[in-house]
Design goal:
CATH superfamily: ACP-like
CATH architecture: Orthogonal Bundle
Number of domains: 1
Number of strands: 0
Number of helices: 4
Shape: globular
Radius of gyration: 12 Å
Protein name: Acyl carrier protein
Strand content: under 5%
Mean pLDDT: 95
CATH class: Mainly Alpha
Pfam families: PP-binding
């Protein structure tokens, strides 16, 4: 089982190729406002996260995830199930 810190490291690594603005990543970094991602970028990123962690993030969960920290928490929760 991966620790939350390990999950954060992997998430940050996955964000890298999509971080065109070179935004410094923190727990509070938002996908829409800080990273300025459009819906297509979000879909590509979600697919990368799902592949990396072998999980499924539902559309309802995606709607509730606004920042990097919330994503790490969601991944940890899904991996526990």
């Amino acid at each position: 089982m991966a620790s939350r810190e390990q999950i954060m490291e992997k998430v940050e690594g996955l964000i890298g190729p999509f971080n065109n603005k070179g935004v410094e990543l923190k727990e509070e970094t938002t996908f829409a406002n800080d990273l300025e991602w459009d819906s297509l970028t979000v879909m590509d990123f979600v697919a990368a996260v799902e592949d990396e962690f072998d999980i499924i993030i539902t559309m309802n969960m995606q709607a509730e995830i606004e920042n990097v920290g919330q994503l790490a928490d969601a991944v940890a929760k899904l991996m526990d199930n």
